[in-house]
Each structure stands twice: as structure tokens, then as C-alpha cells.
Fold 2Fe-2S ferredoxin.
Amino acid sequence: ANITFITTDGTSTTVSGNSGSVMELARDHSIEGILGNCGGVCSCATCHVHVAPEDVRKTGEASEIERDMLELDDNADEYSRLCCQIVVSDAIDGVVLRVAE
Ligand code: FES
């Protein structure tokens, strides 16, 4: 799947992968702002992204645990996801994710 990240300075980077989580993919490609401090267990929110509205049907909605974490983040909105919780697969090909502040 090809996934596009837009970092806070407006830079757009498209990377491709076929397994693991979106957070791991971002880290592998040194996408700025995706730290993944907790290693992907949904407890740090350093992998926060905003999914492009038209792509939400591909990524699905945040889980309850994920929403609880996002509630603590002032920058969260209805399109927020913790990208360690998004699995890389063909189902999300073409999605655009904006790295949160
Ligand atoms: Fe920590 Fe996603 S990497 S919540």
C-alpha cells in the first residue's frame, strides 16, 4: 500500500509497505513527528495523525482505548488516529495522513 504523510511543515512524503503498523512504516522512513515512543501499544499518542476525511472509510474508526488516549490530546479531532493502531495493508492504499502538531 502507498501511504502519504504530510508533516507539520507541509512536506508530503509517500512511502509504501505491506505489513506492520503505519507507525512502524513512518518510523522506518523517518517521517518527522511520528515518534512511536510506546512501541505501538496505544499508550503514548506520539503517533497521532489526522486522516484525510475521504480516507476514513479505509482506515476505519479509532477503537475505544485509542479514543481514550486521544481525548488527552488537545490537537485531536474527529479524524484523529493513533497510527500504530492502523495496520498496513492494501485496504488502506492511497490514504493521506497529516502528522499532528
Ligand atoms: Fe504509542 Fe502509537 S506508538 S500510541
Summary: The chain has a mean pLDDT of 97. Residues 45 and 100 are 10 Å apart (CA to CA).
